[in-house]
Description:
The complex is a heterodimer. Chain A is built from 14 helices and 19 strands. In chain A, the strands form 3 sheets. In chain A, strands 1, 2, 3, 4, 5, 6, 17, 18 and 19 form a 9-stranded mixed sheet that branches. Chain A folds into 2 domains: 4-64 and 385-437, Urease, subunit C, domain 1 (Roll); 67-374, Metal-dependent hydrolases (TIM Barrel, Alpha-Beta Barrel), CATH 3.20.20.140. Chain A is of the alpha/beta class. In chain A, 29% of the residues lie in helices and 24% in strands. Chain A has helices at residues 86-95, 114-127, 150-156, 171-180, 195-198, 207-212, 219-236, 248-259, 270-274, 296-308, 323-326, 343-352, 359-364, 368-374, and strands spanning 4-7, 14-24, 29-38, 41-46, 55-58, 63-66, 68-73, 98-103, 131-136, 160-162, 188-190, 203-204, 216-217, 240-242, 264-268, 313-314, 388-399, 418-428, 431-437. Chain A is globular, with a radius of gyration of 21 Å. Chain B contains 12 helices and 9 strands. In chain B, the strands form 2 sheets. Chain B has a 5-stranded parallel sheet with strand order 7-6-5-8-9. In chain B, strands 2-1-3-4 form a 4-stranded parallel sheet, sandwiched between helices. The longest helix of chain B is centred in the last third of the chain and has 21 residues, at 283-303. Chain B has helices spanning 14-33, 57-68, 89-98, 113-120, 136-150, 168-179, 208-212, 225-229, 236-243, 247-250, 273-277, 283-303, and strands at 46-51, 72-77, 103-108, 124-130, 157-161, 183-187, 202-205, 217-220, 258-260. Chain B is of the alpha/beta class. Helices cover 41% and strands 15% of the residues of chain B. Chain B is globular and about 55 Å long. The model of chain B has no long low-confidence stretch (mean pLDDT 94). In chain B, helix 1 crosses helix 5. The relative contact order of chain B is 0.17. Classes of the chains: A alpha/beta, B alpha/beta. Chain A binds chain B through residues 205-216, 218, 281-284, 324, 327-332, and chain B through 88-90, 108-113, 115-116, 118-119, 131-134, 166, 168, 171, 194-199.
Amino acid sequence: MTNQTWQFKNNFKSLLLRGGRVVDPANNFDGVADVLIVDGKIAKVAPDIKFPAQIEFDAAGKIVTPGLIDMHVHLREPGQEAKEDFLSGAKAAAAGGFTTVATMPNTYPVVDNAALVRAMVKRAEDVGLVNIKIIGAVTKGQQGQELAEMRDMIAAGAVAFSDDGHFDDNAKIFLNALDYLHDTDKLIICHEEETSLVKGGVMNEGKRSALLGLKGRPTVAEDIAVARDVLLAEYTGGRVHIAHISSARAVEIVRDAKKRGVHVTAEVTPQHLTMTDDLVNPADASTKINPPLRTQKDCDACLAGLLDGTIDAIVTDHSPHAVEEKDREYIYAPSGFPGLETSVGVLFTELYHKNKIDLKTLISKMTAEPAQIFGLDAGTLSIDAPADVTIIDPELVWTVDAEKFYTRGSHSPFVERELKGRAVATIVRDNLMTLRRI
Amino acid sequence: MLGKNIVAMENFSAEEIRLVLDTAYKFKQIIKRGGDKKLSNLRGKSIVNLFYEPSTRTRTSFELAGKYLGADVVSINSGTSSIVKGESLRDTLRTIEAMGVDAIVMRHKAEGAADFATKAVKPVIINAGDGAHAHPSQALLDLFTIEQRKGRLAGLKVAIIGDILHSRVARSDVYAMTKMGMEVHFAGPKTLLPRFFAFDGVTLHEEVEDAIQAADVINVLRIQLERQQAGLFPSTREYARVFGINDARLKLAKDDVLILHPGPQNKGLEISSEVTYCGQSAIQEQVQNGVAVRMALLDLTLNGGAE
Lengths: 438, 307
């Protein structure tokens, strides 16, 4: 394969996407059509559009979808720019086909007040390229002791709240947070691992950890946390969103809660859908994430949950770290790896091409459903909607190469994997970003 | 075995284990005969002992093993090196490599550290213990000691008692012993056993008595006192009463049962003083055999075992 690179700027007045397979779950549409964009908005979706567009893009054989949304990324600003910044993160998002990402507040300092949210919203506008949404902290400093000024942060533009990175052990504070947000349309994204059960743990507790001697993070830690938060949502009438669900039992708990009408939604990552703890090699910290890679049974349960509607969204949990932080002993390396640039490839290779998921469900979990959960003006190709569009070549075969990542993160368990399927163009309003041969 | 990294017993064949034991036997004769022990097998070779954790017997025996074979040996203690200045493991290894060493003997708190080292630098890496993962030279000296006393390995029943969960010795003994046709039994408090048991060919017991029934060998693992502080058992007194190896429990095993302990011991906790010093105890021999086995490992990996 020839070398390819992304071109991140190509502003246009009008753009006609010719002859792609348009998959727009929000409008229940799946068929070959042209998509016309004028002045940064969707102008028309129909076969054989006649319009003298400034740019015509041949989308034949490609899949045209609403711009992909990832509501769980870590772009590391402010304070951790050695890991990532908004520009490197925005480029990684665009190169992965994402037009909207929401970044977590576990930064330095923690984004837990309106001034910081405002500064980050401004920073996101200045960087441009993709839509970067800001998630605020639930508690001051994410310490789980005092509520952060969430109403102020909403006024400043925060789209959701999370103490992601750890579980809020204090149930009373968490209950207060749910009550306090009750009259708003905002929800809390919950990292679900009961702290005392995962202390010191670096991988799933199972047969693999028993062999390696590495300390485990048991599934029951996640199950307990999910059960508590589901019960508190039920009790308060508040809204919780379960971050990166990974355990089979936790999926079951969410399924049952949804049946009872609890306001709970859930997300899952490509890695928790497709990888197991058998891949953990203590000489390489690429696989170290929280919650950890589980077992095949858990992967299967997550997929089943995705298919039956228990799990609403797919996110990457894009968590880049500086090379020197990850290039060390497994127990000392930080958790997390970058996922924006590999998500589409992994999901197409491991799920779509293996007939484990239909295209409409897959795209819905990355567009319409997260947009609906978080109340975003995105995730649809409706007329007059913002022209956020992703074009995927489902047959493009490529090899993941960390050297070519736009993210600053390097260590990923997907590195060197051959994948089939890749975003080849990402459109945000009046900007067409494309994967080009060089 | 020339150039082989010694990381874990998983990576050994039964033939390789046999070769190490036979080679160690020769070196033991040389140590025992006294007088001038200095050989020239590794003359011109250099070995660095890189220890990130405290150690008396393993470090000293690797150091003496290298010196008896004629190598130049340098020991680095993490407390008095650039490691305290924050140097990464990769950079420390590369620094040592740049000085032209032939082997690095490494002990580290992190599971996988030895494997990491094999991928980071070219010298032969010998794992002297990586967290709770592996301690291959200990497993080999356990086999050597058992064979010296019992005259065979295959068919013997071994009970390994205590903190299996955190034990690199147990994780190495299991592979070494099952590969040599031995029958392995584990016992200890449930809090100190892996919940998801993954060891093929090993029987797990809830009661120590069941594990040591008719045992040929009992390997008593060290109980670290911080396990009690972490809430894994209520008191040292109760541990000693329920799980400790004492004269009364010893009677359940075979009359000629052999007692091993990787050291250092907590007398009166996991093992009683009477058992430590009884005739069936091979704990002191383990230490002496450790030098011979480590000589064998160094000679085989750096010299190919050539005379």
